[in-house]
Design brief:
Blueprint (H helix, E strand, L loop, with lengths): L2 H38 L2 E8 L5 E16 L3 E9 L4 E7 L2 E7 L12 H5 L8 E9 L3 E14 L5 E5 L4 E4 L5 E5 L4 E4 L5 E7 L4 E14 L4 E15 L4 E17 L4 E6 L3 E8 L4 E3 L6 E2 L7 E8 L3 E7 L4 E4 L2
Parallel strand pairs: 2-5, 2-6, 2-7, 7-8, 7-9, 8-10, 9-11, 10-12, 11-13, 12-13, 13-14, 14-15, 15-16, 15-21, 16-22, 17-21, 18-22
Antiparallel strand pairs: 1-3, 3-6, 4-5, 17-20, 19-20
Length: 331
Amino acid sequence: MDTGSRQRQGIDLTMRAQARRASLTLAAALLGAFAAAGAAEERTVQRQVAADPRGEVIINNVGGSIDVSGWDQPQVSVSADLQGEDLELEVSSEDGHTRVRITGYGNGRFGLGGLGLFNFLGGGSGNQEARLTVRVPRMSQLDVTAVSAAVHSAGVLGAQRLQSVSGDIRAELASADADVRTVSGDINLRGNGQGAHVTASSVSGDVTLGNGAGDLQATSISGTLQAALAPAATVRLRTTSGDIDLRGTLGRGAELRGDSISGRISFQTRAPDGFAYDLSSFSGSIDDCFGQSPVHDSQYGPGVHMTGTLGSGDGNVHIKTLSGEISLCDR
């Protein structure tokens, strides 16, 4: 290689190194500016509108939290702590329906196809969130939808429909219907001891109901189900691998069913008029506290079952697993 070629190669390498340093410096500066701007974008916005005391309140938010409480005012009051300059609070009320929602997720300071510079560089939209505090008329019907936002509801006496993809849900329930669903979040519900119809489901989260009464239908794939009902009416509990734990008393004519593939199922239920029971497991064990032994389905193959009646047998208990253990007690 002659002297001129070596010089040209050295110049080329130097220019490349300078370009790389300039690119890194620009990226760091832009990211720093974006982070500083993001910190400055945190602000609180408040809205209040007149609302039907027995109307429907619909709330939508992607990330952050949603905290709802009931009060004795014919108004919906909203306070939103917003992080992200493009986030906006929208509140409207018409024909008995009040809508609260956060808009602007996914928009960025520098555009880039609506994704924003931070998203373009791999940061996603996790730095954008809204923390909503909402007060609604106590008798309102509540419809809440979230993505990664946690949901909390208290003091609402109307029907509730609460959904979140990855956020946890906590709610106080009255005697109205409730439908609560998550994908990976936990569900924690607290009843008031009055009869209600409750549906709760989570794919991988745990589901818990305390001080419940009436009807319950709960499902989870890998999460646990725990419920306390007094009295219980119609109960359906189903998991794939999660455990099931039910405690309480049975009302007249109650129907209880527990199903799992590999989870353990424990029912501790009392009934003034007794109940009939039908328990079966393919490869798991069956235990009880009233002295009955399970019967093998065949002399040589797997599978055990137990059937019988306590008292007049007014209620019915059915439990079935594939490989999970079963425990039934009447005290």
